Predict the structure.
Amino acid sequence: MVGHQGQSAVLGRWELVLCAAVVTLAMFGFVKAYEEPTLAATFGAEYAAYRRRVPGWWPRRPRPPG
């Protein structure tokens, strides 16, 4: 997504901003509606522990286990 946002800033094209927003929303929707529930059903408590330790969408340092 950074590429689309960077291109829109350099080229001054609102169409690229719209494209980046649509792709970002589609990706977020897929992860929330399909990927996360599938991983939770497949891995159960192990995935829940992973989600508590590892950052989701916003960059930050992972938490230590335990």
